[in-house]
Amino acid sequence: MVKSTDPVIPVAVSACILGWKVRYDGSAKRQPAIAGRLAGRLLPLPVCPEVAIGLGVPRPPIELVEVDGRVKALGVEDRTCDVTISLTQYARHVAGQRPPIAGMICKSRSPSCGLEVLLHDFRGGELPKRVEGRFVHALMVFLPGLPLMEEKDLDDDLKWHEFIEAVSAYWSENHR
To answer: Which of 34, 68, 122, 162 is the most exposed place for a label (fewest CB within 10 A)?
Structure first.
């Protein structure tokens, strides 16, 4: 139960799941459950790393590609389009914002925001492992221990409760 004296804690939320039409194809992936979940306890701070780094809407899609043992965010059709460094720099910016965030609700499968994203080889073939999107990966480096969850888990009461507990603990520990 939320008490009026409890702080409203800022969390980053992938903008597309809040209903913003920012995806590569110009669509949104609004999650109806999110408004009720956030109400009164968490302050959603919308983020779309791909738009923030200057990619348009709509835009050619990117995917995660293993190149010489490193994961890069490259254009699907144009492998010379490498936005890995830009996504990392934007994560540094978000990590340094005030008020600081105490968690993030991520768009699953996003090459920027997903927690378990397909990895491809340079020719586009799927590799048998999954990695974090490049923005979220960098955010985890800049804000160690930051609680994260994907929107696909919003309807799971146990996962939601665990996320809220982790966000509250992170906020208390890092924002005294």
So the answer is: 68
Q: Which two tokens stand for residue 147?
A: 């609680």
pLDDT of 166 above 90: yes
Determine the distance from the C-alpha atom of residue 116 to the mean position of all C-alpha atoms in its chain, rounded to a whole number. Answer: 11
What are the extents of the domains in the chain? 9-174
Alpha-carbon span 58 to 74, nearest angstrom: 16
Query: How many CA atoms, within 13 angstroms, populate the side-chain half-sphere of residue 35?
Result: 5
Q: What is the pTM of this model?
A: 0.92
Query: Within 10 A of 24 (CB to CB), how many other CB atoms are there?
Result: 19
> 82-85 long-range contacts, Cβ below 8 Å, gap at least 24?
83/50, 83/53, 83/55, 83/134, 84/134
Interval 119-131 mean pLDDT: 94
Written as one letter, the residue type at 168 is: S
pLDDT at 39: 83
Tell me the residue ranges of DSSP E strands in 86-164: 104-106, 117-120, 126-131, 148-150
